[in-house]
Design a protein that fits this description.
Distance between the termini: 109 Å
Radius of gyration: 70 Å
Number of strands: 27
Number of helices: 29
Helix content: 40-55%
Bound molecules: ligand C2E, calcium ion
Strand order of the largest sheet: 18-19-21-22-23-24-25-26
Largest sheet: 8 strands, mixed, barrel
Structural class: alpha+beta
Length: 821
């Protein structure tokens, strides 16, 4: 409500002052009457008294005068008796007295003579009996002493009642010889007084009437002016002329009101502008939480107009349990009469969407300091909420797999620890991820992660959860078991899921994972220790040839420490000639001739003795020493081959194993060619054995590298063939010469299954025009079967074990039957 309006309202109340003015007029006139009355009584009384005194004095004087000359004679004449004298004086004076009494109505007057000690004439109501002496107590006797006129109020003998009187001494030669008087009965006096008063009341009544009519006219005029003035105030613009008819005071009020109204309007406008500029909508509610005011902004936030919402509850359209919480909060705020800030809640907007709001409010108090409602501003924080969610997602979820991340993992583990029930931590590292990521591209790596993550997620049961720990590492928490044996089917399903091929860029990738498991509480009671131990068990799985599950055990730490120690030694070994190459001849199955030899590295550790390449090659790969070692091997093999060539041992190849890490080097081809150049050996004497895993990576690059090697007359074999399930289609595109069937198939070739596998590999190789080498031939039976399957070449203990270079030279010299395809 605007103050200007309240000014009008107050004016309206004030207009009933009309009545007040009447009453005031009546009061004032009545007061005047009472005062006048009192004054009049006094005045009239005084006047009446005065008048009577004057009159009695005049009468007395007249009598005195009338006696002049003859009066004394009467008194002094001794010839006449006292009674005679009184009678004569009476006869002389009584008519005079009677005359006076006629002309002065209601007056009493008379003569008293001292010598005669008697009243000699008096009136009215004269009788002879009244001619007697005055009482001894009479006031009149005073004048005989004072010799001065006396006014008095007392009982009168002659009038037999109380009177107001004047006594006038009759003085001869300085002596008072008698007195005259004049009096009026008090009763008569009252009659006079009554008349006066009545006349006065009449006048006063007339005055009151005039006053009432007058005040009514003035009031009406005043009210009319006020009304006009009110009309004037309500107008927004007023000419100076129309103001002129009002009194100066009202004009001043007008100026004040309009000035303050302008100020109010200005501040009102400022308020509106601010409210419009706000992101918030401004609201007011009563104590029940019903809207009493809403700024227009509400439309753009809630979708409802202010008009639609006013009178409705602010708690409407709220989503439970928000509703109760907010209502409760509001109630509490009302009780405590407190300001509230940043209360967050959800509401449905007009479109039915849930939006998030933040609201501030302050209590409103009326003039009596009673709480009458709340007033505040509400802001849409949906976007902030969304950002918050996004930030939460970024902070706690991995953006590639959308799995919860390491931070969430730590929280989850802590939760599980707090429950103090056994749980297992499964640490999973993808075996092929690195090579796929490095050799195909990161997108392919990401795809592999995504597919793996979603497949693993599907395998989870109950409260088991999966997290991306980092890189290609996942951690799965397994709960709800008594013994770890119970976990076997769950772990198996995880392994099976991993084993499913993944198709990326039309290539079916072989996906496996190495898993390590630690169990709470026996393998650790903190998240850090449990993760570390599961990681260690995973490392063990890797070391044991990948694609397997290992539960943590106390000994692991030593093993891993050992592997680090070995990695260190390996670095030193490179500089101190601890490595030698052994050679294992390869035999033509049809002719029995040695047609090649595979270089196999041997490490004679100064303190630990012989260490198997199965063990240290992996460590060299993991610790980044393989490039240096690989180059040394190739260099050594080439040098040896050159030596043999110089010794006349011609026409056979030395086969060198190439680690996947070497092949993945972008300048791998250049490195090989550089070594060949350095050793001045023709490339036709060198064969490179590349594992099937290498061939499965990014086809374009692999093909290009192999093609370059082939173009430089290097002989290419795919080693350990059959383990990677390479697709035939893909194999067709690879520029290679030979497949080496993995030893595991040859070993069991007498069994039906493996026979079939070997047979199909050989058939396929022939159809692609590739040579086939069977590895690990240990018996003649195996050799016979291979021969029947038309496998061209064999390698194995049945013929030769890997041997020092000198031994090979010896054998080659004896053999001399050498053959190059
Ligand atoms: P590989 O490339 O498959 O090498 C053949 C392995 O089979 C050799 O083991 C060899 O001694 C063994 N072998 C050959 N014939 C038989 C047999 O009849 N029966 C049995 N049981 N084994 C047989 P080795 O020398 O211990 O090498 C193991 C693995 O270490 C190699 O497997 C290869 O992957 C790696 N390796 C060895 N030397 C080198 C090397 O110079 N460079 C690289 N990168 N890796 C190497
Ligand atoms: Ca090999
Ligand atoms: Ca092999």
């Amino acid at each position: 409500m605007f103050p200007v309006e309240s000014v009008f309202k107050r004016n309206e109340e004030n207009l009933s002052v009309k009545k007040k003015i009447y009453w005031l007029t009546i009061l004032l006139v009545s007061l005047t009457i009472i005062i006048t009355f009192i004054f009049n009584i006094y005045y009239t009384w005084q006047k009446t008294l005065d008048d009577r005194y004057k009159e009695t004095t005049a009468v007395a004087n007249l009598l005195d005068q009338s006696l002049q000359g003859s009066f004394d004679d009467y008194i002094l004449d001794s010839s006449i008796s006292k009674e005679e004298k009184i009678s004569q004086l009476n006869t002389k004076l009584q008519p005079f007295v009677d005359d006076i009494i006629i002309s002065f109505e209601n007056f009493g007057t008379g003569y008293y003579v001292k010598n005669l000690q008697s009243i000699v004439a008096f009136g009215p109501n004269f009788s002879q009996d009244g001619l007697i002496d005055i009482k001894l107590s009479s006031d009149a006797r005073i004048v005989y002493e004072t010799k001065k006129p006396l006014k008095f109020y007392n009982y009168s003998q002659t009038r037999d009642g109380y009177v107001v009187a004047t006594i006038l001494p009759i003085i001869r030669d300085g002596e008072v010889i008698g007195h005259t008087w004049s009096n009026v009965l008090l009763d008569d006096l009252f009659t006079y007084f009554q008349k006066d008063i009545l006349a006065m009341f009449g006048i006063l009544f007339l005055m009151l009437l005039i006053a009432l009519v007058g005040s009514s006219m003035i009031t009406n005029q005043y009210i009319k002016q006020l009304k006009d003035f009110r009309g004037l105030l309500r107008q927004s613009k007023v000419s100076k002329k129309s103001l002129r008819k009002f009194p100066q005071e009202l004009i001043e009020i007008y100026t004040e009101v309009t000035t303050s109204r302008e100020m109010i309007m200005e501040s009102e406008k400022r308020f509106r502008d601010v409210v419009t500029a706000f992101d918030e909508f401004v609201w007011e509610t009563d104590l029940d939480g019903n809207y009493t005011y809403l700024s227009d902004r509400v439309k753009s936030i809630l979708g409802y107009s202010a008009k639609e919402l006013i009178g409705k509850s602010t708690f409407a359209h709220m989503e439970a349990p928000n509703n109760e919480i907010i209502a409760h909060y509001y109630k509490e705020a009302i009780e405590k009469k407190i300001t509230f800030r940043n209360i967050h809640f959800a509401k449905k907007n007009a479109m039915g969407d849930i939006i998030y709001l933040s609201c501030n409010g302050v209590p409103i108090f009326n003039e009596d300091n009673h709480l009458i409602g709340y007033r505040g501003a509400t802001r849409d924080v949906s976007l902030e909420k969304k950002h918050e969610k996004e930030i939460h997602l970024l902070a706690y979820y991995d953006q590639i797999t959308m799995l919860p991340n390491r931070t969430m993992l730590m929280k989850q583990i802590q939760l599980l620890i707090d429950k103090n029930k056994p749980f297992a931590l499964l640490f999973l590292d993808l075996d092929q991820f690195k090579s796929i990521n490095d050799s195909i591209n990161h997108t392919a790596g990401d795809t592999l992660l995504k597919i793996t993550a979603s497949r693993l997620k599907e395998q989870l049961v109950e409260n088991d959860q999966i997290f991306r720990f980092g890189g290609d590492e996942f951690i799965i928490t397994l709960t709800n078991f008594k013994t770890t044996e119970e976990l076997t089917p769950r772990i198996q399903s995880i392994i099976d899921t991993l084993g499913m091929p993944v198709k990326i860029k039309n290539i079916h990738l072989f996906n496996t994972g190495s898993i390590g498991i630690s169990v709470y509480p026996q393998h650790g009671t903190t998240a850090e220790v449990l993760i570390k131990n599961a990681d260690m068990a995973m490392f063990k799985s890797k070391a044991n040839g990948r694609n397997q599950v290992t539960f943590y055990s106390i000994g692991f730490e030593n093993e891993i420490t050992e592997s680090f120690a070995l990695a260190n030694d390996l670095k030193e070994a490179l500089g101190t000639n601890q490595f030698v190459l052994n050679y294992q001849p390869q035999i033509d199955l049809t002719t029995g001739e040695i047609i090649g030899a595979e270089a196999l590295i041997r490490w004679y550790h100064p303190s630990k003795g012989f260490i198997s390449p199965e063990k240290f090659i992996r460590i060299a790969e993991e610790h980044g020493h393989i490039i240096e070692l690989g180059n040394w091997i190739l260099n050594q093999a080439c040098a040896d081959r050159k030596k043999w060539l110089n010794a006349g041992l011609d026409k056979f190849r030395v086969a060198v194993n190439i680690s996947i890490k070497q092949f993945e080097q972008p300048n791998f081809v250049e490195q090989v060619l550089a070594i060949l150049r350095q050793s001045e050996l023709s490339s036709q004497y060198v064969e490179l054995e590349i594992t099937e895993g290498v061939a499965m990576a990014e086809p374009e690059i692999v093909i290009e590298k192999l093609q370059q090697l082939k173009d430089h007359n290097l002989y290419i074999s795919i080693d350990d063939f059959g383990m990677g399930y390479s697709s035939l289609n893909y194999l067709k595109r690879l520029p290679i010469h030979q497949l080496k069937i993995d030893r595991s198939f040859v070993m069991d070739i007498e069994q039906k299954n493996d026979f079939a596998i070997v047979q199909s590999i050989i058939t396929m190789a022939h159809s692609l025009d590739l040579n086939v080498v069977a590895e690990g031939v240990e018996t003649e039976q195996q050799a016979t079967i291979l021969r029947s399957l038309e496998c061209g070449i064999a390698q194995g203990y049945h013929y030769f074990k890997p041997m020092p270079e000198v031994d090979l030279v010896e054998i080659l010299h004896q053999n001399k039957v050498l053959h190059v395809n």
